[in-house]
Every structure is written in C-alpha cells, then in structure tokens.
Predict the structure.
Amino acid sequence: MSQSFTFGFDNGDIEEGVDGSVSRDREVLGAKHVAPEVLPRVHDIEDIVSREALRESSVLTLAYLNVVLLPQSYKDEIIRLSRRELFDIRVQLMAEEELSDNEESTESLIGHISTNDIQPNIYEGGFKTWECSMDLATYLAGRPRQVNDLLIEDCNIIELGAGTALPTLALFQRFLGSTVSPQRRHLILADYNPSVLELATIPNFLLTWASHLKPCNGVGDLEFDPTMLSAFSQSLRSKNIQIDAISGGWGPALLDLVHLSLASSSAPSGLLILASETIYSPASASSFATLLMELLTKSEEQGSRPIAYVAAKRTYFGVGGGVDEFLHVLRARGGKGEIVWETQGTGIARVIVEVSRDQIM
C-alpha cells in the first residue's frame, strides 16, 4: 500500500480561512511505493459543462466563495475571484457512486480530500486552494510589465498543476473586462486528476464569468441553466478565448498532448507558463523541471517569446522540496531562475521564480 503525504489539515482548516487557501508548510510523509500514473488525455470543455448540467437535471448549481486578492500597491485594485466551495465538491462526490472517468473512484477521492493533502499518482491536492497560487494570482493581477508586453499579442497560457486555477482566473477576468479588440487567448489547464478539472477547474471559470456579468456576494450559490451555459460558450468565442483541459502525470505523453493543443491555436507569438506548489518534493521538482524546460525550448525554437512563473515555498519541510532544490535541477536541464517576488516578515518564505532558458549554456 502506498503512503500518502499529509500536511496536518482537517476539514476545519480548509473551510475556515477567509480566502479559502491552505498552506503546504507542514511536515509531510514520503512515499516508497506509488500507484500507476493516470494516463494523460484531453478533455472537451463543452462536454464537461454539459455533462455536469445533466447530472443536475439540466441546471448546474455551484456553491462558491469569493477569493480576495489584496493589491500589491496603492495603484492596484482589489481583485475578487469566485471559486467553487470544497464542501460542494465533496457533496457531489458523495452523491455519485463513481466518476465518469473510471480511473478514479469516488470513495478514494473523498478519503483523500478528507484526510490527506496529496497521495502520489492518486490525488495531487487539486481541489484545494494553496497559498502560493494566491501569491501568483495577486502578482499577475498587478500587471507586471513582462506579462503586459506578452499579452499585447496573441498568446498561449499554460497552467501546470492548475487545480483551482486562481492565477489563470486572474488573467481570464482581465480578458473578460477588456474593451479593446480581443487578441487570441489560448488557455491550457493541466492537472493530474480528471475529476479536478471537471469539478473544480472548469466550474471556477463558469463562476468567474458569471461574477463578471453580475458581481457576486462573498459566498452563495449560482445556477447555470442551458441558456447560461450556451452564453458562456458564446462569450468565450466573442472574446477570442479558447480553453483546453488536459489530465495526467508530467511526462512525454502529457508533453505531446500540450504540443498538440498549442498547434491547434495557429501558433500565437507568445507563451506564458504558470505553476504553483509544484516543487514540494525532489521527485516532483525533477519531472516538473523537465516538462517546463521542454516547453520553453520548443517555444523558442518556434520563434515564440516564452515566460514562466513558478510560485513556491522556499522550503517544504519533511519531504526535501523547495526553491534551492528546484533551481539546482533547473540548471542541470539548461534553465535558470530569478526570484521576482518574495514574502516579507516571519514564517516560511514564499517566492515567485521567473524561469527561462540559460542562453549561455
């Protein structure tokens, strides 16, 4: 039997936070044996949305919580992003005997949501909102110059280990509010678990879109009937936004699917890669760094201008991961990292690293 990583949180820790985020700075347990990986595959967004609506008798009801991103300076505005409540996901899982994807059992996922943060190759923590994802979303909401320059043109945006996808949601909300002629925005959301994409990631895009149309209260329920779901799809087309979702472990098969997805967008000139809390162990840092450098290298070879941001703790106690380990692995693969943001004060430091290829090598 495989061991799981546990970060010491009970359900109260998850639900009581004002912003709904939790921290990965607790002690963790390693795993000597892990289950076989879930094979990567592509998910159709409209199929996910329509399937969820059918489960709810054609009206999809989502319980939401507004996540507040405080501005980094007086010039920035407060950003509110709507995400699905964890208890709502748990209720849906409990109401189903098994998910549509037969690689995952409902019973297994409920157990891991309730007692563990992650278990390698079974559940990678995507239903929860982690501190570093909020850091990266806040950083992007502050409109850093490099990102602004990239978004002037057509652009691909990939979030690896997307989970609740707050960083991409911050950009998505910006795109929805843009009044200028829309550039092409191709969003690729990758998470290990298919169920995370179906029950958390994509519903969060529905909620963010709905709250853009009509601001939502701090917590509540929203209903999406077939007319609303059709309007969501039409809004994406009118804003020139394409959303793809890919599940599976980091490796060559996932990389191939990402490249196929990128090829479907008529080769926009820019690439932005986002990731949060993906380097918590040496094993995850190694596979993640390999995938990241492959994407950056391929993008440059095709004439694109790639930028990557990785948000993480300085150190993940008890499991060996952290920024120093990641930078070491990155250098071995021809990359380099520069810290562009860091928390101030006491506690375990959290940082955002800008990653690029090392042109000297």
Observations:
- The chain is about 40% helix and 25% strand.
- Residues 71 and 78 are 6 Å apart (CA to CA).
- The longest helix spans residues 194-213.
